[in-house]
């Protein structure tokens, strides 16, 4: 009988310890959850800031790209104008004193021999 009482007291004590342990673990879990919320908010804030910075950088790069495309179009147009046959002929005649060669002015030279 005494053994049953002792075993019963041990069982009650053990159950109380288990209940305290469960209560402690529950409190720890709640504390971790409570601490996790501000941590997640901080992570969100950092990511939002990085997103804003990257979005601004993308906009700036897109503007720079547009400017470069426009400049490239202008340069291609300038090349077309500067390399036109009429312009080159005008410079050759007026500034360099050149003229179109007549058929009789053309001399054909043939090379014979070994190629090196």
Number of domains: 1
Shape: rod-shaped
Quantity of strands, as a count: 0
Report the sheet-strand fraction: under 5%
The CA-CA distance between the termini, in Å, is 123 Å
Structural category: mainly alpha
Largest sheet: none
Radius of gyration: 45 Å
Helix-residue proportion: over 70%
**Average predicted confidence as pLDDT:** 91
Low-confidence stretches: none
Elements, N to C (H/E): HH
* Number of DSSP helical runs: 2
Can you characterise this structure?
With 116 residues, this protein is mainly α. It has one domain (2-98). Helix content is 78%, strand content 0%. It is built from 2 helices and no strands. It is rod-shaped, with a radius of gyration of 45 Å.
Keywords:
mainly alpha, 116 residues
Indicate the topology.
Blueprint: H1 2-82, H2 85-94
Quick structural gist:
It is built from two helices and no strands. With 116 residues, the protein is an all-alpha fold.
């Amino acid at each position: 009988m005494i053994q049953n009482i002792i075993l019963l007291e041990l069982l009650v004590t053990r159950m109380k310890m288990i209940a305290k342990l469960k209560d402690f673990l529950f409190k720890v879990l709640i504390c971790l959850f409570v601490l996790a919320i501000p941590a997640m908010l901080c992570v969100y804030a950092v990511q939002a800031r990085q997103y804003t910075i990257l979005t601004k950088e993308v906009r700036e790069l897109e503007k720079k790209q547009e400017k470069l495309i426009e400049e490239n179009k202008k340069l291609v147009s300038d090349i077309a104008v500067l390399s036109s046959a009429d312009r080159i002929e005008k410079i050759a005649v007026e500034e360099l004193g050149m003229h179109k060669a007549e058929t009789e002015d053309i001399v054909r030279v043939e090379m014979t021999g070994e190629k090196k």
